[in-house]
Structure formats: structure tokens, C-alpha cells
Design a protein that fits this description.
CATH topology of the largest domain in chain A: Rossmann fold
Radius of gyration of chain A: 22 Å
Number of helices of chain B: 14
Structural class of chain A: alpha/beta
Oligomer: heterodimer
Low-confidence stretches of chain A: none
CATH superfamily of the largest domain in chain A: Nitrogenase molybdenum iron protein domain
Number of strands of chain B: 11
Shape of chain B: globular
CATH architecture of the largest domain in chain B: 3-Layer(aba) Sandwich
Number of domains of chain A: 3
Strand order of the largest sheet of chain B: 2-1-3-4
Distance between the termini of chain B: 57 Å
Largest interface: A-B, 52 and 56 residues
CATH architecture of the largest domain in chain A: 3-Layer(aba) Sandwich
Structural class of chain B: alpha/beta
Chain lengths: 384, 355
Amino acid sequence: MEEGTDLQGCLNPVWPCALTGAVTALSGFSGIAVVIHGSSGCYFYPATLLHNDLHSTFLVEQEVVFGSSERLSELVKELSPDYQKVAVVNSCVPSILGEDIRDILSEYTIIFIDTPGFTGDFESGYLGAVKGLPVTMGTGADGVNIEGINLIDPFARGNQREAERLLQLMGVPVGTIFCHDSYQSLNRAASFSITVNPDLHTGYGHEMGSLLGLSSIRKTVKTLADTFCNADTCGIENEVRVVEERITKAADKYLKRFDPPTVTIFSTCSYSGFAATTLKQYLDADILYCGSRNEPPRPSAKVIKVTSLATIQSAIREHSPDLVLGSTFERSVAGDAAFVALTPPVRGEFRLSSKPLAGTEGELSFMEDVLNACMDRQQRKSVK
Amino acid sequence: MSLNPSPLSTSRTGGCTLTGALAVTTGIKDSVTIIHGPSGCAHHNFSLLHATILDNDCMVIPSVISSAMSEYDVIFGGEEALLKVINETAAGNPGIIFVLSTCITETIGDDVLAVTRNAGVPVCMVPTGGFLGGDFETGFSHALIAVSNLANPMVKPGEYSRTDSRTVNLVGEKNLEYEVKENFLEIKRLLSLLDLAINLRFAHDISRSEIDRLPFASMNILREPALTAVGNHLQAAFGTPFINSFPLGISGTLSFIINVALVAGSPPEKALEAEKKYQEEVFKEFSDLRGARVRLKIPSGIQENLLIEEIFHKAGFIESPDGVLLPVPYPFPVGTNGMKRMLHLWRRALICRAV
């Protein structure tokens, strides 16, 4: 079931716009005042999603008619003394008014990001904003940046901690964390980068690999060891082996009693790919449908872009999976299938700890959630 | 005179008209709402609605469709995209189609009204226009008025005796608030003291055909005074008198009973006596709070200071700058049972402090 430009593709959209992506990226850097140049409607959604201090020009009709320069200058002037940098993110209406924002704010050295909602999806806005950051790269093997931290991702905190832990285990210094760091950290970005979410590759630093999935971790560790001659890989290699054994043992126990689950997956492209590979590897799972919120980097019959709840609901109804992976949206249409949260937003449950998806702990945590959800469902079925 | 609106102007932070309008249109369960704008606008609002649905343990997902305007449509106009979506939506035969415009379509000058009029299928356009149309409350009121215009009563209002109906409409319940159900039950309880029943929850979980019942109630009870324009509209259209707010506070709840009884032509004494007795019982339950040293944290939107003061004194609190900070919920609790829940919150705050 492919989502086209038909009506179903427009029904109940489940993925945020470019503006939200840009604001998410910028608000991850302390010291940057993020100004949403638009109305309160454009402000409230990212503000409620991120729970960070965001600012807005809160435009009203008069400014659309007579120009918004005075209002914008007034706000930037007010914020400038308290922050190291002010970043202005343009929303739909001011982007077509034709005002030259850089010229209006010429007396300030601002970051200006022109990614109004109609230009694309969350990822395009996030990456557009990252490209607009004043990043200064180091030279040589000075450390490794961590990429792919996205503050609306339920795994953001956990992924960051896990990546930092693994690099520390290898004795490799951490460079800049995109996007959850200080503004000063942009002056000391390293020449190399690893990622916890390959969909959000920034282009800063030579790409050394991903920490999403054990096979990726192995490859990435090897690449890092080739570059950082003092890197200690024994600890991680051993950890990967132990994790693999633990998951295999648990999965074997499950498979002794139950058939492999049939699965539908709905997430961003990398997370969907990770989930599909991991479930096939350990549980011989039958992946019935693999949906991606963002455009897959290469056209693929295996991963289909889907952003409408109607299409998602149809796919779940058509395939009747044992297990659904996705966000709160998918959970609401999952019926009696087991459900595991993989994609933002995750609402209606308490998430207090810093769960990762990346790294060895991420692999353990993911499979733990899957096995427990599948076991719970089997028990529910047996009670019926 | 400066035309420049103050930076502190409340209209700046009043939210989006779309969200306000959607809070009404998605309350009509067999409707489809088309948002003419980029898909991000529909997502932001749908995500909010979905979160509310989850919080309220309701799993009926409203249908919100975006015309998914792209950069191309912004440059060349989005009317064609809108018409296509209207026609495709109509093919699904929904109870009613609503069309809401966004700030970007208002700015580029799409004639949304003309598109809906010429669509060849029944469509109800709600004037929104994102922030160009006002704020959340404007969108909410405009939508209630637009939806009320759909009412097509089978009996002519003049031939119907409202006072005999012994029913009331609840107008403009805040469908996005967490305690919408509890507030409804409280009003229902208070009305039952006067032997009145509810004719229609306008517009909460009703179907298109139920809107036709709108004129047949002896009165409309508005959720809050901000909806007075809606009350006036309904009075002009159907001759229905209105009470301008749900009951708030101790004496406010008692006045509500008196006002409703007056409009309904019922004697209020018995109901008043029962409610006063119940209020005494509630405060007796919280007699352990008497003498507690507290201070209040009143949200900026709360304007019911006198009501809070009344509860404060009735509960026997002592105001003190170093007292325990008690939060006042927003929106302000409805009726006696709303007050009771607030007192539970306050007791918990006092216990936490003591621990």
C-alpha cells in the first residue's frame, strides 16, 4: 500500500513540518535564543513538544500588512544581551512577505533559517537549520561528534548518553553533539562524526558510522580504531558479544513457545530499518509493512513513505500484525496487536528513564520491550 | 495614534483560530474537516487533538484532511488543490464537510468561500485564517456560529414551546480540556436538581443530524462569558435565552441554580437547599485544612479572584507569604464538585510540604 498524493495521503497527517524540525535542532544548543518569526499558532506546537524556552514574534495581522521589521528588531534587541546568539526561524506567512530579514537585523549577527512549513518535512527543517549554524571544524583526530540527537525523539537522552558512554569506553573524546550541546561547542566541532540516527546526517565531520544496531556498532568501532590509534576496542567488542548472546538466549526462549511475530513498522527511515533488521535477526519476524515518516534516501520496495494515519490504519487492518511499532498514533489504531513505542510522539505512558535505541543498551532495551509486549499479548490471547 | 499593536497584546498569544475551530468541528463525529494549507498546520492541530483524545479515554479519531499545499501552490494559488480535496472528501459521503482556511492561504489570496460555494457539494466554510482571523477563541466562536447555521429544525421554532421542553443546551464545552466529562456531569447533576435535562451538547460528540435539535431547548448554557456573541447569535436565530457561564465557586454555583430556575420558570428553593447542604458536606470533609498557612498561585488567565477568596475563607486557610503554595487550576473548576477536586489538590500540596 503506497501513499500517493490522493486524499488518503492527506488525512490526519502524523509528521511535523520543516519549521518544527528547524526549531528542534536550534533549541538543542544552550546559548541560542530561538525566535519563531510567526504567529502564536506556529509557536505553541513546537513549544509544547520541546518544553524548551522558545521565543516568538507572535505576529498579528497589522504586521502582515505594514511589515514585521519593527516587531522583529524589537524582540532581537531584547534577547541579544541574554544569549550568545539569536536564531530567527521563518514561518510560512513572513517567508512570502518578501521582507529581507538579514537586512532588517543587519546590526545583529543572527542565525537566519528560512524553512517555512510548506517547504518540507521535519528532517528537511532540522538539517536546514544545522547547515545554517556557525560551525568551526577542528583538524585531525581530535575527537568525534555525535549526530542524530533530536529532542522530540523519545530516545534522544538515552541515545546521547549511550553514545557518550561508548566513546568514553574507547577513550575517544566527544566533539560536538548535534543537536544537544552548548553554543560554544560549535567552535570545536571534531573532524569525525558518528551517528545515532543516520537520517539526521549533518555533513560536519567525516562520517565514521552509526551506533544503531550491533552490526553497525561493530563496523563503526573498527573504523574508529583505524583512525584513533589509541582507541581501546576490547571493551566494546566484548560488550557487543555479551549483548548478542543475552538477546539470542531470550529470543530463543520466546521462539520455543511461540511463532515468530508478524510485524508492521512505522518510524523514521533509519529507525524502521533498524527495527526490521533486528527483529528478523533475533526472532525471524515476518515484516509485513515497513513505513517511513521521511523520504527514504533511496527508492525502496521495502520501506514506504507514509505520513497519514488513514494509510497507517489501512496497512494495519490489511496485514493484521502481531506486533505494531510506531508512535502514539499507531497505538491508537493497533487494535489487539502488541505495541512498542519507536517514534515520536509517545504519549499516554510515563517515560522517566533515559531509554536508548542506539548502542548496545539500545539494542537490549528495544528487544526487551518487544519480547515483553509479545509475551503480554500471548498471555492476553490465552486468557481469551 | 499608533497602529502598532502592543507587544503585550493578548491577541498575540491567543493561539490559532484553526485550533479553536477544530475544537468545535471535530466534535461533530460524522464530519470531515479540511484544512486548506500546508500539511504542517493540519499535523500540529491533529496531534493536539489526538493527545486530548488519549487523555480523555476516547478512541474515536476525528477526520482532519490537509489540502497539503506545497511551495508550488503557494506561488500559483491553492484553490485547485482545495477543490480536488473537497470533491474527493465528498465521495466518502460524510455527514458534513467543514473547510478551514489558514494564514498562508489568506495571505496569498485564495478565495476559499468561492471554492466552497462552487464545489457542487454541501460544504460549511468556517472563517478562520490562522492568526489573520484572530485567536483560538475567535475560531471557537466562529465555528459554533457556523455550525449553528446548519440547524434545520423540522418543527418551526414559533410553533414550539420552549418552556415546556424542560431541556437545555450546553454550548461551547471546551472539548480540549482534560476534565470536559467531569464538568458535563456536574452541570447535569445541578440541572437534575431542577428537574431539567440536557437537549444537546453543542458541539460535543454529536452527529450532523443532532444539530437540528439545537433550537428545541428552553435555554442555552454557555461554557464561559467569552461565548456571549454565540449566545446572542443563537438568541437572535432561535429565540433561545442563555446563561452566560458554567457555575464557578460557592456562591456562583448557587446563583447559577437561581438563574437557571428563573429562565426555566421553576422554583429554585428546593434545589438551592440541597446544594447548600452538599457544599457544607464538602467543606466538612476538608475541615482538617483549617488554619493551614498558604499562599495562592493564580494563573494569568484566571479572573475569578473573588470566587477564590470565598473558597479560601470557607476552607479556613490563613494567607501567609511563607505559606505553602497552592495552585489554582486553569480553567477554573466547575461547580461544587470541581471545587471538591481542587480542595483535594490543595490537600495533597499541603501533605507533600509536610512530608
